Amino acid sequence: MDYSGERFHPDRVGITAYEHWQRYAFARQFVKEKSVLDVACGEGYGAAFLAESAIDVHAVDVSFEAIEWASKSYSRSNLRFCVSDISNLPFKDEKFDVVTCFETIEHILDHESAFSEIKRVLKKNGLLLISTPDKSLYSDGLGQSNIFHKLELTTDEFEEICKKFFKKNKLLGQRIYQTSVLSPLDSNVKSNINIHSLANGSISQSIANMVDPIYIIACCSDAALPLQIDQTSILYDNTYEAQSELEIIHSWAQSLRAELDHFKFGSSTNDGGDKGHTQDLSRGKDDFNQHKVITGINNLRRQLENMEKFDKDQRLLGMSVEIQGKLDLLQKSIAIIQRS
Hints:
By secondary structure, the chain is of the alpha/beta class. It is built from 10 helices and 9 strands. Mean pLDDT is 80; it is low at 267-285 and 308-317.
């Protein structure tokens, strides 16, 4: 299947994988013994995941290639894939208990037709779980440009259209945070979740209000919404591949920074202009080991490039920005040394 960037593939790792998998992990608690429709299923990983709990899952996508791939890749007796447009679903009225539609409506222009068609195939008191990026942060704030997005919505615009079609609506925010996990080593112990939030050097035993969520997930129904919707969902990468890569890069940057600080300290112990200072500067150059630093910088540059395999947009990898700054500082310092 073509890796154009329009559809997520489950062999991806890193931030995009966390975002996509968490939406389906959140949805799965609502589909047990239910009939489910997954709209814009892509290559099918999410529909297959939901089918492990649901009575049956129908999954649709406008791409013939995606549906062909999904049909060959995921085989279950309660899972069916078919080609369909979101605005013309091939199902009878009030067929499904739950409809999932993640990161889809921003790919089309007529949002109202999509909502109307979803409402038609959803049972009277059924549940819609639908998500979209918040334009004010995703595009306007972070400067991201997705060529496959035709019409993005702000949170207010998204909420407005949800309210137009459903009596009950609850919005949830999603974004990546740095997380530290402390858990029993005994795999037989089922651990309860004890959550703490850290902000401005202060810890509280609760989930703080989310600041600037990048994605908005709407839970919509004409009936009372499930109580689980008010619970916070946390997903962490048990393989920590992306974090390990970051830690390696950060370690490199720290060691190079230590070399630079050592040189700065050695070269500033005397007043400028005297013979002693010139001698110290010369010794500092030797200690600095210019070749070693240049080699380290090149290694860091390559590792930063390799991080693209985890995520193309690198939205929240703030550490990489910090490291880039350190590399720039080191290169400027080398230039100064060469001129002195």
